[in-house]
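Our preliminary data section would be incomplete without showing what the modeling component actually yields. Below, a chain of 1300 amino acids is followed by its predicted structure, encoded as tokens that our downstream tools consume directly.
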Amino acid sequence: MNIRIKNSFTNRVNVISSTVKNLLNFIRGCKQKVSNRQFLIDPDRKEPILDTLTNSPYSSNSITSSRYTFYNFLPKQLYAQFSKGANLYFLFMALLQMIPDWSPTGQYTTIAPLSIFVTLSMAREGFDDYRRHKQDTTENNKECTVFCKDGSWKNEKWKDLKVGDLVSIKAQEWIPADLLLLSSKGENGVCYIETAALDGETNLKQRKALEETNSLLNSPESLSEFRGKLYAEGPNDDLYNFNGRLEFNDKNLTLTNNQILLRGTILRNTPEIYGLIIFTGEETKLRMNASKNIRTKAPNIQKIMNRIILITFIFVLLLSAVCTTMSSNWSKRIKANQWYSRGSNRDMVTVLFSFLIIFNTMIPISLYVTMEIIKLAQIYFINHDIRMYDEETDTPAESRTSTINEDLGQVGYIFSDKTGTLTENIMLFKKMSICGQKFLHDIDGNRIDSDELLKLFISSPISKKKTTIKSISSLKRSKNRSSSFSDDNNNNDNSDEIIPTTPITRQSSIKSNFSMIAPRPTTPSKSKKTLEDNSILNTFDLLTLIQYFSNSSFGQRAKFFLVAMSLCHTCVPEFDKESNDIIYQASSPDEFAIANASKDLGYAITDRSMGNVSLRIHNDIFNISDDENNNIFNQTFQILNLLEFSSKRKRMSVICRFPDGRICLFCKGADSVILERLRVIYEKDSNDLLFDIGSGIKTDEFLDKTVDLFPMLDDNNFLRQQTIQHIHEFAIEGLRTLLYAHRFIDEDEYISWNKLFQEASNSLINKCEKLEEIADLIERGLEITGATAIEDKLQYGVPESIDKLRLAGIKIWMLTGDKRETAINIGHSCSLIKDNSIKIIIDQKNISNLKIINNTPKDDKSHIVIIIDGETLTTIEQDDELMECFLDLGIKCDALICCRASPSQKAFMVRSIREKLKDSVVTLAIGDGANDIAMIQEAHVGIGITGREGLQAARSSDYSISQFRFLENLLFVHGRWSYVRVSKFALGTLYKCMCFYLTQGIFQIFSGFSGISLYEQWTLAAYNTLFSSLPVMVVGIFEKDLNYDTLMTIPRLYKTGQENTEFNVKVFLSWMFGAIYHAIALTSVPILIHGYFHGYEIRANGSPQIFELGLVIYTCVVFVVTIHISYLQSHNWTILSHFTSFLMIFGWFAFQIMYSYAYPIESKSAIYDVRGVFQRVGNRFNFWCVVLLAVSFALIPHYFLKTLVNFFEPTVVEFYQEAEKDQKYLEKLIECENVDFYEYKNDKNDELHGTKFTTDQLPFQDDQIFMSPEKRSSSPLALYQNPLTPITDVGFDEVTTRND
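Predicted structure:
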């Protein structure tokens, strides 16, 4: 009995623990771990399939992207709204105000506006969610064709689809759920899908049904007989991998991602497919990716805002405490002796809370709501800026958030991807290395003279045939003979004869989604070039050598390399009827460029299926032979295995069977990965290598029926050394390199390996890891085949943009997956590395010297660039001390390049700097590919490039642009303006509240600290909304402290935001001291006039009533606040600023006129005599004199003080504001701004950037009317003398070598 009770208790505890854990996961947004899925396939079933884990039906196919329902909207929104500190503060104050006799300003003056603002915020959320509901309803009610048990088809709504249903999808239809592709009416069971809505990639993806299901399940009759069992992984968010197994016809069939069609994709170029639903609704991969727990971003300025609000709140508490103390003292000393105040004593708590209620609105209740409106206007300007519109791609800038607009004006670090971000991601096949000779892929370039080409070939180490040939032209007459020529025959040739050729042109095969190769002119150049100019051979020369030396070692190797290029990729050929040409669907621009280059060279893939590739080889590309058809061969290669590329493997391989039955592995990838897998060459023992695996290559009939085992060991050494040298040269030129290698595999070895491969493919656990391990077993003992080099063109304007960003004080770190030499070359090209830069290369060899380098002082005139690779960074990450030194060094230096970096390392670098600097510096990450998403989300500001790698990065970013150069405009103009506007709006809002509500505190001095309000309650409540809101909003939306051209041409002005000069505690206190002075002046002047000038009374008889006095002071405040914000603190005065200023003042008087008539005579606020007062007072000349005197007394001293400060201590911004008034002088400043600090020479000849200026031509001279000589050191000239804060006194030259 006790055991059963104990077990029951344990079970209950486990259930509760599991429930709590699931609830916490739900709250945190974490995905729950789901077990594998398995179910029986039976078209005749009537009941839904049950989940074996929960014993309940699987989730429906209905999706919900909305956040709320009708029942939970109100509670969720109330929690969300009052989780904000400001709203909670005002709710507390509103509750205090509701207590009878506690509030001197009425019971509803706080709760009413708070309710309005909260309601507006809730309404906005509700409207957004209502649109999501409508979109969900539209999608859930789409129809799909579902197979019925009687063998017919019927249409059902998507929301009614269930796991295990068989569906039919036709061309151009959306995939309604995650499906297993059973059969396709496309060729060989292939179908094509568009995944742009899923991952942003516009190129079509190929999927292929298993041969067993495609051949047997291709009709309704066969589907009705379909029985089996499916085993699949549980629901997850991995879009690119799938592990599963299908038991069908007594076979276990392995399922991969190649048989899965995901929800959110569209069927293209395929008539119809049949599919089995595996995952539905919220368990589809699309929905699993839709709700990740991403770091919430908040503006950097918010931390200062929180401190300022805290300071204001402490001030309110202190002011209330002082007033409470003075009230108690006044009551004891004076009030007790006044007969009219007897019996009206209040306790200290009531008095304290009364004062808190009076002063609570010094923290503006509308601050956050109004700021949101301002930021929405700012993103409108960003989205509609024509200067950031890319006409070529029809892509404007787009803002996906308004929360962090001001952060764009405070960026200190930029972390940039290279490919597609700094470069165009338009791949041009430029060069290749074959047999130790490099070739330029420029088929319209000038050809080398034929005889010179022959001499080069004969003298090259790649040729071992001892031939003596004077002219290639002799081969034309002896093309049917052997390649060995006698001297006698050659002596009879005319050495000046020119071989007639048919020009080769790159076909316009650019009708796919990549426009990688520009069409060339069809007329070849008539001029010739000689070898004396050391020009690189081009593809005309390559094809000539292949044509005439087909049987030579070079010819065999060259043709074999072209076969490797043609087979080792995954491009899918399609025949275009309009152009009568083959076009390629490629998953990457690199493969597209390689496939088209091989086609240009006469090796074109004409058809591809999962098991075979058809290759058309044109051996006589020049049409020299009389029988053209004999020179075109079509060969079919059987694709046995495809070892796919991954960021971890950094290579891909294809195992194929040649037409003669031999099995060959082609591998291409990063040279660092391929080189370590090459066969080791033993120079002393030649016999061991003669028949080593991969050392010989046999050719079949399409390779001239010759056998060439490549027994030349010296050639292998030469080939390896030269290829590595060429790769290094290509990388220095900034080209993306790929190294090709191969090996021939014995049949028995392949059978043994393939068995292991199939076992790993059928594994449901750690399938990817197992496949990588098995692939590594076969990718060994390789021989070099050749190398390719692809150019990724630098985007227009990138070097100029980086120069300006650096002048703005922004440090740029380039994080790329390319090799070191390529990254360094791009660094030079894009101006990240200067000619006089000191490069510090950190690798595994000198990593131990990192501490020494870090401790070496840095000269502030040196430009230091750190270069590190991903492998070294991995080592540094494992040592906290080394990591700390590396980060310190990175912060000290001016730029950093990290090559061979993985996506996780990119994000790690951003996170490390962000945490190291403790969010004191704003970080920005910019990229264009899916591998940049983690980095973009880690940074304070994420910028996505709408590039050729898809839209994933752009969709996951905060802002997106189409070109890197637009980053200038986004940061220097919109970012800086947003920072200035938000700063002035926040300061102006706090100022107007302090100025107005402090008059209540000053009035307490004249009212015995009684806690009575100077203003009528509803007039008081309307101040923030009706009489002071528009001026600060206009400043927040339209303020331009400097013009567009000035900001774009003088990057150093961007430092205003980096240094937080516009919004900090010091600036806030200066505004508040101004507000305090204004409040004192505006309250004291009217009261003192009434009290001490007995001959003058505003009213006809006696002292003014309290409402009348409050009316005078209120009027003065409206004037002062409007003028101060719209004119004294705003630089650009526009018609809109004049109109809103007039509207505020006119609106105040119009309100008083109407309110004076509408105010009820019998009012609960009996102490305020409102009815008809304004009409009586407004007609008096004395009223306007008091208002004019008080406003002048408040503003004139403030104006003179501001003028004096601007004259003797001008800021950089004020200096350039003055300079903008003189266009010629501004042009001189801009000319000097082009000086690069690191090239600036502060010597006697005043040489600036190669241009000599005389002393009177230089800016900032003593005779400038707005700059005194004594203050020149604090002028903007200091930016040129010392634009970067020096870190230490000595340079890095002691431990590094300057780059020459």
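The CA atoms of residues 793 and 946 lie 16 Å apart. The chain has a mean pLDDT of 76. Preliminary results of this kind motivate Aim 1 of the renewal.
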